[in-house]
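Example record for the data management plan.
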Amino acid sequence: MLISIITFVVLVALLYIAMRNSLIGKKNQVANAEASIDVMLKKRFDLLPNLIETTKSYMKYEHSVLTELTALRAQSHSLDTVDKPQQDKQLSAAVSHFRVAVEAYPELKANENTTLLIRSINETEEQLSASRRSFNAAVTRYNNAIEMFPSSLIAHQMMLTTLPLFEIANTERINIDAARLFKQ
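Corresponding structural encoding:
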């Protein structure tokens, strides 16, 4: 009887340790995925001033787009996990507006420096998109672990809370009318 009780207590303790370690691992995976996004955001923020300076002389009438990019870049240095998705949406929209504005300037599109910078921005945006997907996968695993029984009991004890996913802006959910784009 005593051996059964000791065996049961040891199994419960091992199960507790395994679940706690799993939760810590998932929390660390989220932090790692968030750090990957930070790396891509930093790369984007470092590219933006160069792109803005290169295009200023050409885009005399697009000051609002350039000002918006500059302001959003300045705001982005001290964001926490909760504010980062909203800031990212705003900056992604501003970069998208910038790309549209560049299309209106053939001499700007022909500029080799601008072309190289825009290619770098596009590559960074693709890497950022991959980082967001990785982050969302890690957050989903983490949120599932802290909400599902029995690990939810340990998560509550560790004071872990669910985290938000990176989501796209509503304007980006609208289907593109390709026919209208080709008529321009």
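Summary line stored alongside the record: DSSP finds seven helices and no strands in the chain.
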